Amino acid sequence: MYDKATVEVLLRPKVGLPGVFEKNREQLIRKTCEAVLLGALHPRTSITIVLQVVSDAGSLLACSLNAACMGLMDAGLPMKSLFCGVTCALDATGAIGLDPTAKQEKEARAVLTFAISSVERQVLLSTTKGPCSVEELQQCIAAAQRASGAIFQFYRDSVRRKYSKT
Questions:
Q1: Start-end of H helices in 76-133
Q2: SS3 state at 50
Q3: Residue 11 falls within a domain, yes or no?
Q4: Are 19 and 59 in contact, with CB atoms under 8 Å apart?
Q5: What would you report as the CA-atom Rg of the chain, rounded to the nearest whole angstrom?
Q6: Contact 10, 26 (CB under 8 A)
Q7: What is the pLDDT of residues 70-95, one digit of tens each?
């Protein structure tokens, strides 16, 4: 891997050592970051993203994806596009809830998390826990793409606040 930057993601739990759950999440976040980073501009470089879980109120993967994107932006690394994480929960009736709490995730029939690109709202990552139909999956993707607009606006506002301070 000498022709492009190597990306490493470390997801640290609130207490203890990382387990299988964290290692799985690290891989998902790393693949998403590699998809948008212009690593060829930085050959023979290592990019390490360390994410520390301070509290888990639900939607942890989406929150981790958003934190990783904000960290890459803050570091000034060149990217093809920004990305954001959105989690959807399907209840027993098939109703879609966005950004579910930990309690709502446990009660949900299915929990779906997506990474959405800022360019054309493309899906970069999709992970599902629990059964859902193809129609429900499509509805969740559409809901996540709509919700991503608010997250990208939050990114803009955060960067504007950071650089408007003198």
A1: 102-107
A2: strand
A3: yes
A4: no
A5: 16
A6: yes
A7: 999 999 899 999 999 999 999 989 89
Domain span holding position 46: 6-164
Count of domains observed in the chain: 1
- Give the global pTM: 0.90
CATH number of the CATH domain containing 21: 3.30.230.70
Q: Beta partners for 12?
A: 52
CA distance 143 to 109: 17
CB 38 within 8 A of CB 80: yes
Sequence-distant (6+) residues with CB within 8 A of 141 are 114, 123, 126
The DSSP bridge pattern shows strands 83-90 and 110-117 to be antiparallel
- Residue at 1 is within a domain: no
The predicted-structure confidence for 1-28, as pLDDT tens digits, reads as follows 578 888 999 988 888 888 898 899 999 9
E strands in the chain: 6-12, 46-52, 83-90, 96-98, 110-117, 123-129
If you search the block for the tokens 């998403």, which residue do you land on?
32
End-to-end CA distance of the chain: 41
Is residue 92 a contact partner of residue 132, using CB atoms and an 8 Å limit?
Answer: no
Q: Is residue 139 part of a domain?
A: yes
Task: Assess if residue 158 is contained within a domain.
Answer: yes
Query: Is the Cα dihedral 8, 53, 97, 93 positive or negative?
Result: positive
